[in-house]
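Hey,

The postdoc asked me to send both predictions to you directly instead of through the lab channel. I've kept everything plain text so nothing gets mangled by the mail client. Protein one:
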Amino acid sequence: MTNELKYLSQQVARQRLDRRSFLGRAGALGVSAAAASTLLSSAVMAQGAVKGGTIKVAVEGGSSTDSLDPALVTNSTGTLVNRLWGEPLVELDADGGLEMRLASEVIASDDATTWTFKIREGVTFSDGKSLTAEDVLATLERHAGEDSKSGALGILSGIKSMRADGNAFIVELTGPNADLPFLLSDYHLMIQPNGGKDAPDAAIGTGPYILKSAEMGVRFVAEKNPNYWNPDLGHASTIEVTVINDDTARVAALQSGQVHMCTRVPPKVASLVGRMSGVEVHSVPSAGHYVFIMHANTAPFDNNDLRLALKYAMNREEMVDKIQQGVGNAVTAMSNSHKMAEGTVTESKEVEEALEAIHDKVSSIAEMNTHIAEAVKQQAATAEDIDRNIVGISRVAEDNVGNAAETTRASEEMATKANQLREMLTSFKV
C-alpha cells in the first residue's frame, strides 16, 4: 500500500494525476485525507517547483485610488503587487530571521550605530540598468526626506547619515538600534533606479516579474522577468491578480475555479472552505498582527498606569477564540527578539521577565489602592458619625435656645404683671 501511495503521489507531482483522484484512491486504501495530503505535499516538494503556466490570484484590499509608488502603499494588494516587480534590501524568512535580498551581507559596528549593507552584484532592474549602492542610497533618501509622504518615514527617523561607498551602502544612526536590518525589510522600501525620484510609480525594480498591465483596484498582470537573479523564486510564467474585496465573492471565485488561490479567507468560514473539493486552506505564521493604538502623548493615554491597566484587562486568548475563530496566536507583547548577527540577540525571555515584574508592580499598587480605599471608607464612616453628633448637638442647642426664648417671654409677662400690681398698690395708698 505504501509503495502504491508513493507512486500515486509522484504521479500527481508530475501532473499526470489530479489531487481529487489521488485522495479518492488513498481513501479506498484506508488512508485518511490528512495523511494523504501530507504524503502528497512531500512528493510535490521532492519533485520541485513546476515551471511555466499562469497563476490566478484573488486578493482583497485594493482600491481605485491606490498607487504603484511603494512609498504610498496602504493595503495588502499594493504590498503583493509591489513585491512582484520590486525587492527591498532584506526580507524576513519563515522563522522571523533575516533573509538577504538585494543586500548580500549585513555588517554592524560593535555599538550597533553603524550598519554596512554589501549590495548584491550582477543584479539588474527590469529596464536593464545595473543595481548600484547609489540606487539604494537614493531610495532611502526619498523615503526619509523631510517632505516625504512615505509610510516608512517613521521607521527611518533614527538615521543620522547615509552614504554609498563603492558596493556598500552605509547607515549611521543617532543611537544604537539592533533592529535596523529588520526595519529595512518594510514593504515600502522597494529599491528603485535612482530611488524612484524620476518616476516613483513606474514599477521598475529587480523583482521576479515585470508588470505588464495595472488597473488599480481591479486587475494586474505580471510576466516572468527573464533576467531575475534568484532561480528559487518566480516559477510561473504569468501572474494574474484580481481584486475581489467581498469575502463571499472571493471564496466563490476560488470554489468555481475562476482563480487558483485567494488571500484572506475569513476565519469564520475557513473550516468550511477547507472541506471544499480540491481546496486546501493554509494558515502560515507571519509578522502580521492587530493592535489597539494609544497615542501616548495625548490624554488619557499619556498615563502609563492606564495603558498597563488596559493591557492587563484584555483577554487575548478569548479574542483569538471568539473573534478570529481560533486562527492566530495571542501574544503578550511585541518582542524585539530576532535572529541577528552573533552578540546582538535580544531574548524574549528577558522581555517576559520585565513584563512579569511590571505586572507584579501593578498588582501591588492595586492592592495598596484597595487598602487606601478601605481606610478612606472608614474615615468617611467616622466623619458621618461626627456629623450625626454635631447635628444632635445642634438640635439640643436649638431646643435650649427655644427654651430660653420661652423663659424670656415668661419673665417679661411676670415683669408686666408686677408693674401692674405695683400701680394698683400705689392707687390704694392714695
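Protein two:
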Amino acid sequence: MYGFFHLSPSPFSLQPSACLFHLSPVTFHLFIMIIPIFLPHLGCIDRCIYCNQGYITNVLDDDIRSTIKHSLKVNKDAFEIGLYGGNMFNVDPSLLRTLFNYFEPYKERIANFRISTKPVPLKEETSWILRANNVSVIELGMPTFNNDILKELNRQHTVDEFLTTFHALKNEGFSVAIQVMVGLPEESWSDVITTANNIVQLNPFYIRIYPLVVIADTPLETMYNNGVFVPIPFDEALDRAVFIYLTALKHNVKTVKIGLTDNEIIKDKVVAGHYHPAFGYLVRSQAFYLGVKTLIDKHALKGDVIVHLNNRDIPHLIGQRRVNIERFQKAGITITWQKEDIDEGNFIIQSSLSRVSGNIFNALSELAQNT
C-alpha cells in the first residue's frame, strides 16, 4: 500500500524519493525465511495523501542488482522473496521481466515470491509474468471500502475495481492478502464495520492493519495544519483496530501485522496520528481487557477476581505499564491471575461467588456499543 523508493529511468537504480515505512529486515512465515526487497514508489504515478516521497529509511542509493545480491546473502537452502512498495501492477511489463531476471542466479534457492501493490491496473500480461515467475502471494492495499474516502486519499481506484482484482487474482490461483487502515479522514464506525465485513466475506490469505500516521511534507500534513483533518483520539483508533482484528480472527482470517514498529518509520517525521512502536501489542491487550471486562460487567463482579489464562496472554491481561490492572482497580476489582493449560485468547474468571468462561471475542459486544 505504501511507497518506499523510486526506480529512476536508469535501469533499476534506487533513488531516495519515497518512504512512509518499510517492513522489518527479515521475517518468517511457515518456517520459510522471507527476505524483503524494497522497491519504493515503483510504478506509482500519483501518491496517496499520507505518503511522503522525500524520506527513506536505512537504504542507500544503489543499483538494484547490488541490493538483491546483498539481501540474498543468507545460509538457507530455500527462502521466499518479498517485493514490497509502490504499485507493481503499474510497472511496464518489460521492466517487470527485467526485475525478475535479476533473481535468476538465485532461482534454485527461491521457493517463491510475494508482492505488495495497489489493486489497479491489473493487466493480463502482468498477471502472466507474475505466475511465470512463481509469485504466490499478492498483498493488495485497500485502506477502506468507502469510495469517498478512497478518493480523499487519492488512491486512484474504487471499491469495485479492488473487488474485481481480488477475485481475478484468486481465480488465477494467487493467495491474496489485504492491507487495511484505521483513523482515516471522514472515517466512521460504519466504515470500520464495512471493512471488517468485507474481510470476512472475501476471506483473504491474511491481513495487515495500519493506523493512519501524519508524516511531514505530505498533503495530509497540510490538511492537518489547516484543521481540515483532525485525527481521532488514540484510544478510538485502538478500538477500531481491535474490532477489525477480532472480527477477522473470529472467522479464521489471520492478522500478520498490526501497526508500525520503530524500524518501519522515521519517527522524527511523525507529525500526528496514531503511531506507537507497540501498537500491535496495545491492540491485543485492549482486546483481552475488553473481553474480560465484558464478562465482569455482565456478572456484576466486584472485589477479588482471579483470571485463569494461557501463559502467553498474561502480558495482554496486565497491559502496558499495568494499565489494565489499574483500570480494573479503579472499577473496584482486584485482578490476579493463574496460568492454565488453556488456548490463547480464552480465559476463566473466578470470584468468590461464580466461575465463568470467556474469550477475547466477548470484546466485540463491548465495541458494538460504539456503532
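Summary for protein two, as requested: The chain has two domains: 6-277, 290-370.

Thanks,
C.
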